[in-house]
Known about the structure:
It is built from three helices and five strands, in the order E-E-E-H-E-H-E-H. By secondary structure, the chain is α+β, with helices and mostly antiparallel strands. The protein is globular and about 35 Å long.
Amino acid sequence: MAVLIDSPVWPWRGRRWSHLVSDVSYEELHAFVAAELGIPRRAFQGDHYDIPEDLYDVAVAAGAQPVECRELLQRLLAAGLRLRKARRPAASAG
């Protein structure tokens, strides 16, 4: 299993959040989240789940590997599982 989690440093709505990803498959990630964290699939953010800081230790105890955010992104990219945001077309002058 290669489920990765970064530190809960991302602020949003008065809480800190981690990113949880798999560098193997989305199916592995969905299965881990459903079995270990009970987070609904509708919370999936395209290539990751946002995990509140109060579930960080639960995720690690269940087998998620803590990594720095750069390593998480590098491994997601290397696995071809990074969902890139669509680029906006450049505004035309005139």
